[in-house]
């Protein structure tokens, strides 16, 4: 049995590698986009909550509420659901009649649950 020249083996290996890359590249890109979207949602939630805690502006609380409602409705990634659940818990804490210091502590603990990557 003849195995053929080395150049044919190299060409065949390169073609197989090209097919593998072509098949799996879209999945990798989608995964990367999903991770970036999740990170951006977390950072945006952090920014909204941080603005609320520093300014105590009722308009900021309305912005947070709108973000949570719209985000939950248009979200198609089940991995992002925890962001909206924690966001709603934060909203409940902010709307409660507790002492401001206690509310701030609870809100910060809830934000820590999101494991924010701050850069």
Question: What labels describe this entry?
Answer:
single chain, 119 residues, mainly alpha, 4 helices, 81% helix, transmembrane helix, transmembrane, membrane
- What helical percentage do the residues reach? over 70%
Assembly type of the chains comes to single chain
Question: In angstroms, what separates the terminal alpha carbons?
Answer: 61 Å
Structural class: mainly alpha
Number of strands: 0
Number of domains as seen in the coordinates: 1
The poorly predicted ranges are none
What would the principal axes of the Cα set say about the shape?
A: rod-shaped
pLDDT averaged residue by residue: 88
Order of helices and strands: HHHH
Radius of gyration: 24 Å
- Main pleated-sheet profile: none
Keywords: Membrane, Transmembrane, Transmembrane helix
Task: Report on this structure.
The chain contains four helices and no strands. By secondary structure, it is mainly alpha-helical.
Topology, pairings included?
Layout: H1 6-55, H2 58-74, H3 81-95, H4 100-113
Outline of the structure:
The chain crosses the membrane at residues 6-28. The chain is mostly helical and 119 residues long.
